Amino acid sequence: MTSNSNHEAKGRVSRRTVLQASAGLGVVGLAGCLGDGGETVTVGASSDGSASYGAMNALQRSVSNHAEDAQLNITAPGGDPDSIRAYDAGELDGYTAGNFVFNQALDDGEPFDEEPVDDFAYQALSYLTLHMHWLAVDGSGVESIEEAIDDDDLNIWVGPPGWGLRTLCTTLLDDAGLWDDIEDPVDVASEDVAAQIDEDRIDVFFGYGTNFNGLPGWLVEADSREDLYALEMGDDYVEAIEGSAAGYEEVEPYGYEQDIDADEIQCWTEDYNTYFASDIDDEVVYEIMEISHEHWEEIQDADDNYMDHSDPADMAQYYHENIPVHPGAADFLEDNDAWNDDWERGD
């Protein structure tokens, strides 16, 4: 019998057990039974048009082509926070999330401060890093994000309200003393950004490149329709990023069809993992890992932003310390000489 149900409470890892694992006390969890027809794993992957959603759908296609035990069902709850909450409510078997947002959930930080979550999944597969940077529409008349914020006539987009990337963006702006000066940020979905620029409702926004490969679909559209250029960030802003949980890099622009008037762009970065419930069968998670490793080129054919997983070690490069690793992922990494004994193996 094929299993299509989402994880039950017995397969969920509570905040208490995650914190115990961080203290070296271990995690108690039960793996679900694998039916004769395989197991369908429902994963929340941010929102339609996001880099996570594109990457997971590409992985889903290859799993459908090659798996014997596993099937993936990818949904778009609306953002990483919504995915984490849906898992906590028992509506998903797993999710994707940036490390910043995952830590915010674990620590009851924004946007989880008023509605904390209790249950967390095991980490499994690193698949994404983003290079976020500020852009302006040609004619905006500013050279830096600080100048843009000082100009009350410019409309600034900081991401949709449901995105974890918005929380990261606004947190860094706040740390730099800039967020309070943005009185009325534009609140639209990413897929509406290009249209809003056409209607003169967005002048400045952040974009991102993915895995040094390309741009998400919504930014590809904006790049094809609008004249854009990169903005600089001041020293105080850079210091705020360097002192945060985000990374800071200066990289050559990539993915754009146009010249965005910069030899290097200043970026804050975010890394992403997939997470699976502890009761998802070990063989299922192992097979998903194996397919991503053996068929990464096929997956990139479907989404050229997908990470190169030819080296199994790269599949765990964004792991959190002291957060349990799904046993199926741990088995795969051990079999491929990529396991680190400092990691916590889930039960």
From TrEMBL:
PROSITE patterns: TAT. Pfam families: NMT1_3. Transmembrane segments: none annotated. InterPro entries: TAT_signal (IPR006311), TRAP_TAXI (IPR011852). This is TRAP transporter solute receptor, TAXI family. It comes from Natronorubrum sediminis. The lineage of its organism: Archaea, Methanobacteriati, Methanobacteriota, Stenosarchaea group, Halobacteria.
